[in-house]
Records
---
Amino acid sequence: MEQPDRDGHAIAGLGIAYHAMSFGPDRFKDVAKQTRGMAMDAECGDDLVGLPSGAGPVFCGGFSFADNGGQSPEWGGFSPADLILPELSIMRRAGRA
């Protein structure tokens, strides 16, 4: 994800440390339950470049509007709730990463 208008802010993730998926009307609650302890157990490196606080685990993914996901072929590989915690997350801001 990149937002050039916000001081060059960008986040990248590599690998898969954890993958949470769910279906149906309780998908938000179910994925929250699956991921609840992840932030507490994450290993966060030292802030070596002096970036503002907020560094830590970042899940990548999304949720469908429909309980059972999109029905068109373009959405065939995605669950209605699909979040990935990368093995490594990298943040860039103001030319520093």
---
Amino acid sequence: MDGTLHPQVHAFRSLDDCRRLLDALPTARRAVVVGGGLLGLQVARALSVRGLVTEVVEGGEHLLRSQVGAPAGAVLARGLAGLGTTVYTGARAVRLTDAGLVLDNGYTLDTDLVVLTAGGRPSTAVARRSGLTVRRGVVVDDRLRSVDDPRIHAIGDCAETRTPDGDGRTTGFVPPAWEQAAVVAAHLAGEDRTWTGSRTVARLRATDLEVAVLGDPERTDGQVVEVTNPVLGTHRKLVVRDGVVVAATLVGDLSRIGLLTQHYDRGTVLGPDEPGALLLGTAGGSTPAGAATLPDDVEVCACAGVSAGAVRACRSLLEVTETTRATTGCGGCAPAVRQLLSTRPTLEGTRS
């Protein structure tokens, strides 16, 4: 074996991977996506709306197992079923044969192409060969320096940081990598800055398949307020500690995400009835139609940490992307950004 993938098997990690997959679509009828994480759900939906019979294979007991609980995973599975996509959980792909993709539960899935969105690992070969301590990622201190050599820094997927309970953690999201890059840049410029962790916001926004996860709702201690409506295909969960939202999950309806993110970022102390009112939609706050009324200091792009005021200061979407990076991450903030731009006051004497 020379390490190359079978022609029917496609990785999904680079622009070249995407181009190769697009080239294969015209002759394909059936597809299997291996991995039920955020990336896997995006790929599955994209393939199904292009007319392919699509199936998802997830090794965990439910979809998005790293971000959400079983009730939310079940709602997502029903949403995919509505798009004609079958989900196999608790199963792993074993091998590809002439008959199809063989799973460890005995099923063989007839398919023309397989897309791998699971099993990604940080590229740490250089660090290992250099003798640095590497577990899942390069082990770093609170200044993102290798624990073996303070001249070497690691950020993003390749950096393994310590959690308060002593466990190692790597991140696969864009916002922490940008925040870590800023810490390293400040350190190299002579400032004494440390990495204290990131308030992660994960988003998947697609028709009939919308998800937002604030923090780590499945591993964060606190009081849980949870509402599931399988008929409407929605699931909402808040983790509240001392009246403050410390984590949240929204599936199927993101109309409350603006207000929830605002409370989450600001550490707003809520009254006893407010968490339930937020989930049921009876508390006042931002909706998709209300982005224009958001205060300037409210964050609208979690990936790049961009506020409503920073968007209002721009004259076009191009200027927003070039100067703030908003909409260039997961893209979930695009509707709010466009609305903020559309309601921006017209200035006299605008430069031509």
